[in-house]
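The aim of this short unit is practical: by the end, you should be able to scan a pair of folded records and say something sensible about each. We start with the first protein, listed as its amino acid sequence and then its structure tokens.
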Amino acid sequence: PNLIEVHSSTLTFNLPVTAKPGQDVILPCRSAENKPVTVVQWRRPDLGSGYVLLYRDEQPDPENQHPSYQNRVNLQDRQMKDGDMSLVLKDVKTTDGGTYQCRVQSEGSLDRKLISTVQLEVLPPGESLCVML
């Protein structure tokens, strides 16, 4: 069999993250690039122009943040050690379910590269995470 090797500087995964309303959840995003990151942008494409979190100049930029995410989101590691740009979403609501995109702009770059896409599934209240067979 032929083996095809794929080398990429970014890691994209579509693993669903499951949460219950009221929980705090971490949406993973990690970049393997060694350049300093100047901007981290988390978006939900279905929300239109407002973003979930924009982090630039080493601080959150609330100007165009979607109102439903204000005071509920932050980076897991503000220093972004080891390329960790995971998003912490506090007090999950059923309306938070959807697809999240993590984009990153590195020093010296003009565009924001899509690093990871994460699907958040929010269980209806009362439904448990484990399934009994």
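Turning to the second protein, read its sequence before its tokens, just as you did above.
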Amino acid sequence: MAQEGLLVSAFYLLVFTAMLIIYRVVRGPTLPDRIVGLNAITTKVVVIIAVLSVLQQEYYLIDLAIVLLMVNAVGGLILAKYMERRGND
């Protein structure tokens, strides 16, 4: 029972910190700041999905979290390549 309370607390903490990072994504000031903020939010969402899957005992959601993590990684690489090309012009 104590583990469940800890997981619920972790869930709320992750949601709260993700909401704080939204400020960085919206306000910037630069494109790299926004990309890093979006990457951090996506990573937090992956952890939130994993915590919820354990709380609900629906472990197939971990597969969804893994796919989202892979999409996040590929998206980050694509955005980094875009920024690199944009800097050379």
